[in-house]
Amino acid sequence: MEKNRNYFIAIALSVLIVLAWQFLYMNPRMEAQRRAEEASRALQGETAQPVSPESPGAQSGSGVLGNLPGASPAAAGLSRDQALSRSQRVQIETPALIGSINLTGARFDDLKLREYHETVDDKSPIITLFSPSDTADGYFAEIGYIPNESIGTAPGTGTQWTVASGDKLTQQTPVTLTFTNEKGVTFARTISIDDHYMLTVADKIDNKTAGPVTLTPYGRVLRNNKPATPSVWVIHEGFIGVMGESGSLNEHTYANIEKEQFTNEKAKTGWLGITDKYWAATIVPPQTLPYVARFSHFAGAQASYQADYKGDDLTVQPGQSTELKNLVFAGAKEVPLISRYETEFGVPQFNRLIDWGWFYFITKPMFQLMDFFFRHVGNFGVAILLTTIVVKALFFPLASKQYASMANMKRMQPKMEELKAKFGDDRMGLQQAMMALYKEEKINPIAGCWPVLLQIPVFFALYKVIYVTIEMRHAPFFGWIQDLSAPDPTSLFNLFGLLPYDVPHALMIGVWPLVMGVTMFLQMRMNPTPPDPTQAMIFTWMPLVFTFMLASFPAGLVIYWAWNNTLSVTQQAIIMKRHGAKVELFANLKGLFRRKEAPTK
After folding, report:
1. Beta-carbon contacts of residue 296 (< 8 Å; ≥ 6 apart)
2. Pick from 136, 134, 116, 135: nearest CA to 125
3. What's the distance, Cα to Cα, between the start and end of the chain in Å?
4. If 0-12 CB within 10 Å is exposed, 13-18 middle and 19+ buried, where does residue 524 land?
5. Treating both helix axes as pointing N-terminal to C-terminal, what angle do 2-21 and 456-468 enclose, rounded to 10 degrees?
6. What's the pTM?
7. Which residues pair with 327 in a beta bridge?
8. How far is residue 46's CA from residue 100's CA, in Å, rounded to a whole number?
9. Three-class SS of residue 20?
10. What share of the chain is helix, strand, coil (3-state, %, to 5)?
11. What is the pLDDT of residues 379-419, one digit of tens each?
């Protein structure tokens, strides 16, 4: 039937891309992620020999930022504990962070996130964000100055700072470090931190020499190797920044920067860094001094990736001083916190650090609605159910038109059957006669498709919210669902854990995917089975195919789909009754179990 054909086309358009990607691309990547994480854990357990330290300018690339420190030419092989023990440090301790500052270079290379664990088990290790550069997982942020003839030695990679005040960095107690070079130029660095992940690095430079000195500030975020978790197209992981008055977002993958270094035009505002799915490390340069930003890759025994900036030269006259302030964000990309930092610290477009996607104008409000419900009910799964009700209410006028159109089409079935009998194989004549019938009865045969098509952005937006936002990470629902951002961990093929063996990833068909499949089956049976064999086959097998395809989706999305199907069935039954159309659900279900009569000879 015409209405069913259009309906199926609309459904296919809405989910085909996502499902194909998940089944053919995401599933293999998730398996690769599992193997990579196992290999990474094995590597961390090995004992390695020390390597030579970094040297300023080593393999630093070329171009306008060629004088910046780069990566070490030697392979990084120390364990994390070995690397931490090689340098003097000032401890960091806040409600959200624990770690230390390396006094060699005043580098932030030891940070762990106290509020986040590697697994849903609260006894599992907390997330390690920063590690020293001479480890396989080296990742750090550094603020410094490029030396020149006028200033002599400038604080940088190898500078040994002295603690002037503060023995531990907390949100109440800042730490001040000092360094005086051979010419008598004194650098006093005051480091403070808020209750979460924003570090403020305020430098005061006193020129006690007889002549002017020139300062060339820089900042960089460097990480060894790529993340163990494979990147997927639905979210950006890699280099990121907003540089300049235009406020345009610059995103570059690791693969792109391996091919070609990126250098931004000179800017005076903005920020830059490296982002993962849930975590990020960024630097906000002094917003009073023009700078050039760069994203680069360093090949060699130890591959590494660096986001850095180089500021314009700044002259300090004899007997004078100047101050520069950098901000360093290192932590979890919590939505309310990122928005707060954008306002509180005046960081332009900092909310773009979270990848809301193309439909950000839908995605972000949807998260805010879900977050609103979460704050009242305390469960993100319930918040998803409540959000679905709100979305269904907003789309109710469109749904009403959709089901009204379907009801009208049903009333026209007898006349359509007469036309089919009349025209037989004359498809052109049948088509013209049906169009005339639609015009006479004032029916739009594709009216039922538009509401489905208009809901596609909502589906993608919800997928982004569940997959991208850290608030969904390890968020429990009820029972066995302890992480709404991960697939349902149960499987039909081991009787949901009753049989003592593991099931291949492709056969992880959990309880919630089965519930979703049943609700989709009921929704399909709300309409008569199409007479066309191809359409009938789609009608019959689509719920089963979707059950397998969505089994690897985040549980939160599958719960949403099952609940949405349930509401749709209820809504469709009510609207069609109001329009006098027969609800086919129970008749169709009975027809499945009714024996077909043998044809008479």
Report:
1. 61, 70, 257, 261, 262, 305, 306, 308
2. 116
3. 29
4. buried
5. 20
6. 0.79
7. 200, 284
8. 24
9. helix
10. 40, 25, 35
11. 999 999 999 899 888 877 777 776 666 666 666 777 777 77
